[in-house]
Sequence to fold (440 residues):
Amino acid sequence: MMVSITIAQRIALVFIVACIATTASAQPLDSLIALAQRAHPSVDAARIAIERSDARARAAEAWEPPRVGFEIADLPLSDPNPFGRGESMVMAEQMIPLFGQNRRMAAAERLSAAFAETELAVAQRDLAARVEREYLSLWLLDRRYALNAESRVLVDAMFKAAEVQYTVGRAVQSDLFRVTLEIERLGNQRREIIEELAEARGRMNAIIGRHDSISIAIADTLAFVAVMSFDSLSAGIDAHPALRQMDAMAAMSLAEADAKLSMLDPMLMIRGGISFAPEGHPVREGSDMLAALFAGEHASEAMEDPMRWGITVGAMLSIPIAPWSRGGPEAVAQVSRLEAQEQMLKREVMKRDMSAMLRRVWSQGRRAQLRLEFHRRTQIPLLETTLQTLKGEYENGRSTFTSLIDAYLMLVMARMDAYMQEMEHAMARAMIVEIAGAQR
Fold:
């Protein structure tokens, strides 16, 4: 007793066998995203930018280095020997910011760390979106490959039915030619899909930073997540890294404006030195004369061999009150404040664009969800039943081969449409995650 196997059973058997190995070793999307984010140069560059901002802040907070110099003064032209008549002096000076000018500049530089952190978040989110797009491309190619195998099962069954009908004289040879042409088309399509899979795998490995030939196993089914309400999604736009990046840029500009204005505060310059006046120098001789005049003979005798060394101490305070000294810092501060306003306006433009894009992909995902449910629940089951019925009627001589092949083509197209709608729903979901930061 022979057991009859329907077309649907054959397709299910081929599908299960083709997917067992893939399902067993499928690599989750989250693991691929984590792998890309861990090894991609853009992420490393953003982390370096964070470290660089800390180094720049330390550099801005440091005082100017002290200056040391040597000076020879009052050197007579008749005796230009610097160690004979001239007064020698070793000096040191230091500029001291009295009102924390350097601290304000350092605070502005430290805000660049927040900007670099948003750059890191932007790079990670962009990588996640790129990996997910390539993952979905691989998934669709895998589904096309499986659909090609399912179609080959259907065509083989139709070829056997046409061959039997041709043997008993109830079919024409052109029916066999049509089926043979479809078999060849499926074979060529299979080879094309293999090439496309190699290309998509290479793109994914390039993003991750692996060798081109490393295989990537994709799950045969996508996790179907219903699209959330638009209001709940739009609330997450403000947390987008690109918007936070513009907030950080505006904060940096305002801090720079404050730091530039602080340059108008007074700064103290202190200066000190040790001088040496050789014997016969006017300064030394004048000192001896004054000592003898005001201190008397006893003091003059005590000053017969006075010290040749002296100490010089001085201080200067910069007070930029003149218009020509204030104009520069004030203008630079105004530029920074205007840049902050410009960044906030650009942020609002970007937010509106994101909101419009979110509305588009949200509606796209909803439509794809409705079409996918129609394909899965209604169209594909009806077409499978229709094809099975027409095959039996054709074998009994109650239907034409044209009706059978048309039903086959409609079923293949419906399955491909279902995969495309599932892909569209997943792509819309990926865009929603990229814009609003929803969970995958």
Strands lie at 67-73, 87-97, 267-276, 309-318. The first strand starts at residue 67 and ends at 73. The domain at 7-39+98-266+319-436 is CATH 1.20.1600.10 (Outer membrane efflux proteins (OEP)).
